[in-house]
Write a structure and sequence with these properties.
The complex is a heterodimer. Chain A is mainly α. Chain A has five helices and no strands. In chain A, helix 2 runs antiparallel to helix 3 (about 70-100) and helix 4 runs antiparallel to helix 5. The chains are: A mainly alpha, B mainly alpha.
């Protein structure tokens, strides 16, 4: 084979490859699917940790339950009910996330992602507009009743500042993960439609 | 705004033939086409966020693809990433052996060359200038000329047998 022949053969190969348009589609699909799986796994890990924490916290709340006077009684009941409802919600969110499976249709997966998104939306809405203000008010009443010192007031303020920061940060992170999941789902849908 | 992933997918789609051709030069029994292709795409994806447009996109792809095929695969073989199962890819990729007699003969000759000579011949076949070959392989211009001349000579001699 002469060198010119070699070049000709090379361009023949190139032309054959040009005709094979779907050379890459499968690998891209697999990469996107793996990216989707990773994002869902990230959410699932977080929720499973949430379930474990909730189930560890509930016995502790019951153990430290106090009903000495009205504000602490209200605070204790609010914490206990919130923890129980939170644990139920966590378990439900895990079950929704576990339904996201690549063997499902894209439509089903979009449905479960949106379902999970709605749950998260409600969770944040409740935390930001109901729970944080409620705990703040009840805690404030309790501390006022106890006539606590400056150090405990500083602790009280710090807890709420940290709660607000954690809520804001986790909301931002979740938004990013949702974006990734939605992009991957759209990408998979496009690739499968083609 | 275009996501990084979408941008990457588009680049891969535009350059799939390039990646395929580079991989086809280094295919062996130990490293079949699908494995090499998978590794190259994986390494391109890892390096993509750091790509700064200092060189052209094709030069960057050549560099990563050649480096992966020449050395990367050996290292990665010990720690498989498990991103894309290679077995599931082979059915979508053409093994060079399944091509025509002429193409097979071309690969037979090329496989007799040393790794660096192989790389230089690949880039020469891709109509790359000496400057570009030097940039991709990281050797000097004069070295490119010498090695290419030697490789061409070898190919000529081999094809006479």
């Amino acid at each position: 084979m002469e060198l010119e022949e070699l070049k000709k053969t090379w361009s023949t190969l190139d032309n054959r490859l040009k005709e094979n348009r779907s050379l890459n589609e499968r690998i891209i699909l697999e990469i996107t699917e793996s990216k989707l799986e990773k994002s869902v796994q990230k959410l699932l890990r977080g929720e499973i940790i949430g379930v474990i924490i909730m189930f560890l916290i509930i016995p502790y709340i019951i153990y430290t339950f106090r009903a000495d006077f009205i504000s602490i009684k209200l605070l204790s009941w609010t914490i206990l009910i919130t923890a129980i409802l939170g644990a139920i919600l966590e378990v439900y969110k895990v079950s929704v996330l576990m339904k996201i499976d690549l063997s499902n249709t894209i439509r089903d997966n979009i449905f479960y992602v949106n379902k999970y998104k709605i749950l998260i939306k409600w969770e944040y809405f409740t935390a930001i507009y109901i729970l944080i203000p409620l705990f703040f008010t009840l805690g404030f009443l309790y501390y006022t009743k106890l006539k606590v010192g400056l150090a405990l007031w500083a602790f009280f303020a710090s807890v709420f500042i940290i709660a607000i920061i954690v809520t804001w940060y986790s909301k931002k992170e979740l938004k990013k993960t949702f974006r990734k999941i939605q992009d991957s789902l759209e990408e998979i849908k496009d690739l499968k439609d083609e | 705004m275009k996501t990084l992933e979408k941008e990457f997918v588009e680049i891969i789609q535009e350059n799939e033939r390039l990646i395929y051709k580079v991989c086809s030069f280094y295919v062996s029994e130990t490293f079949p086409m699908a494995d090499l292709y998978q590794e190259v795409v994986h390494n391109l994806w890892v390096g993509f966020p750091k790509f700064r447009n200092e060189s052209s996109i094709s030069t960057w792809i050549y560099k990563i693809a050649i480096n992966t095929c020449v050395s990367g695969i050996r290292k990665e073989k010990k720690h498989p990433k498990g991103n894309v199962p290679a077995s599931s890819l082979s059915e979508w990729l053409i093994e060079p052996e399944s091509l025509t007699d002429e193409i097979r003969e071309m690969y037979r000759l090329i496989n007799k060359l040393r790794t660096l000579e192989k790389t230089i011949v690949l880039l020469w076949l891709e109509e790359k200038s000496y400057q570009e070959i030097a940039e991709i392989t990281g050797i000097t211009l004069s070295n490119v000329a010498t090695k290419l001349k030697r490789a061409k000579q070898k190919l000529k001699e081999m094809s006479n047998y």
